[in-house]
Amino acid sequence: MTGLPSWRDGAARRAIEEFLAAVTTGPDAVPVAERVAVFDNDGTLWSEKPMPTQLHYIVQGWQRAVRDDPALAARQPYKAVASGDLGWIADAVDKHYQGDDGDLKTLIGALVGQVVDVSVDEYAASVAEFFATALHPVRGVPYAQTVYQPMVELLRHLEAHGFTCYIISGGERDFMRPMTEGNYGIPPERVVGSAFGLSYDEDSATVHYTDALSFFDDGPEKPVRIWTRIGRRPIFAAGNSNGDIAMLDYAARGARPGLALLVHHDDDARGDAPYDKGVEQALDAAADHGYTVVSVRDDWATVFAS
Amino acid sequence: MTGLPSWRDGAARRAIEEFLAAVTTGPDAVPVAERVAVFDNDGTLWSEKPMPTQLHYIVQGWQRAVRDDPALAARQPYKAVASGDLGWIADAVDKHYQGDDGDLKTLIGALVGQVVDVSVDEYAASVAEFFATALHPVRGVPYAQTVYQPMVELLRHLEAHGFTCYIISGGERDFMRPMTEGNYGIPPERVVGSAFGLSYDEDSATVHYTDALSFFDDGPEKPVRIWTRIGRRPIFAAGNSNGDIAMLDYAARGARPGLALLVHHDDDARGDAPYDKGVEQALDAAADHGYTVVSVRDDWATVFAS
To answer: Which InterPro entries does the UniProt record give (chains A, B) (predicted)?
Structure first.
């Protein structure tokens, strides 16, 4: 599959095609090894509404924990999941973006508590089981059907032009790895995300999670992790939120001008309701730094494959 | 180039060929995507005697610092490089392996001082310049000529059998990246090593080093970094020292039995003098866990290409 059949002929699609022509032919052609493209995940490659998929998995785990130990329901975040009112969780994340990390720390503590001492293989099996059974809470379909078809076409189209594509997500890396090959054709070694701490157990020769979050791969941490993992500066980046600005800038503002795409969820009918929350600064940055804004309403003829 | 022409027909070469036959054909064949091989660098892919190459680069930098500010020569490690007696540096590393990190901390402080606030691109240019001009202090040849020819053949031979090869070194990652493609055919995105801290500068859209060492990629940290970067368990590993035991075990002791090679520098004539220091436990582990020991004297017909 090549080409971009789910993209309407408009400014975004033309910007992509012009960029690909410029970096693959003529005097400014970029060597194949240096054709690196990076993609955010939630809200860029698949739906992040009504909540990021990983939160669904986490809430399921907390619900199990409360069933095993009902006393947990007296404190957050277990109280929220026991009552069925997840507003506290959304508020904790909102507060983080307003500079108050108090509740986020409680959230992360309970998050890390789900994996501490679990081996990476056990966690991968648990995540794979989730993806095999969980349904999107609004659309009632497996999460694989919440993947944005135009973006999968874009991954393949870039690859057909010699690009190597990576996922650089604020989501947690090992939650993504069991599904990225199937959903996006991206193997685990090209998935970068937030990370739990890890330790190696010499007796069993296995790797386990520790009781700490190692880093949160968002905002300015994204270019840092891109360098750490790839050792090259991307010439293409796609994101959809304020947390992607640094990554979009890093691709757009190198010695070789790159293409930065900002997916804008302005569609009121097909899939996610329109939203600008958490995107305000990214839209400003798009105007200031020349990102190409992709309008879901106008630029995508099809949103989901099925 | 395929095959192993610089390897003599012996137990080590036969173990490699039998392993490759088992993982590529028959009922236990491993899918290509899961054929992951990991290699230590210093002492495994090239010479680490009389000192690791990076130490040469570091000493040059400290010598320049003393020239710029002679008062530095009053304290370590500048005192050592100003006097020309590098024994203090070797002792600091030896003490680390005996559990005393005091001098190592001084060493790392001066090491980080060389790169703090430097951009990753500036550092890469400085390292590339070093490799273009520096000569091995004993053999008087460019460091590219200290690469072990049998190991380069092994990299290509594994790739010819569908493997993807990575470098997992205690050496610092961004010091290796400018030379791994040329010396070993391994691109920067497949180089894992110890790491300086990094930060992203939003004004210039560039990544810089901070004033901290992020982690030391040795011993049990190697399997942790393998999982972080690759997300797969290797089925082949090659190392040469105690710091490689965890990595060799990780490859050897998975659900799929892997091959672990321990390069043993027992040759007294061609290149490095024989040495067992820092290898004692690895030789014991080889006996206990079935690593294949590669005798430089007996298994390699040629050591260096030139």
So the answer is: HAD-like_sf, HAD_sf
Mean pLDDT of chain A: 94
In this structure, which CATH number among 3.90.1150.10, 2.40.110.10, 3.40.47.10, 3.40.50.1000 belongs to the domain A11-49+141-299? Answer: 3.40.50.1000
B250 touches A at CB < 8 Å: yes
Nearest to B220 among A202, A220, A224 (CB): A202
Is the Cβ of A246 closer than 8 Å to some Cβ of chain B? Answer: yes
**Predicted ipTM of the assembly:** 0.95
Question: Nearest-5° angle of CA A129, CA A169, CA A105?
Answer: 85
Please tell me which residue of chain B has the smallest CA distance to A289: B205
Distance CA B300, CA A220 (A): 48
Instruction: Flag whether residue A199 sits within 8 Å of chain B, measured between CB atoms.
Output: yes
Cα–Cα distance measured from residue B78 to residue B60, given in angstroms and rounded to the nearest whole number: 11
Q: From residue A111, how far is each of A88, A195, A209, B182, B212 by CA, in Å?
A: 15, 12, 12, 43, 28
- Domain(s) of CATH 3.40.50.1000: residues in chain A: 11-49+141-299
For residue B266, give how far its alpha carbon lies from the nearest alpha carbon of chain A (Å). 28
B11-48+141-299 placed in CATH 2.30.42.10: no
Q: Considering just the CA atoms, what is the radius of gyration of chain B in Å?
A: 20
Rounded CA-CA distance A35/A31 in Å is 7
pLDDT digits (tens, 9 = 90+) for A128-176: 999 999 999 999 999 999 999 999 999 999 999 999 999 999 999 999 9
What residue spans in chain B does CATH classification 3.40.50.1000 cover? 11-48+141-299
pLDDT tens column, B96-123: 878 898 998 898 899 999 999 999 999 9
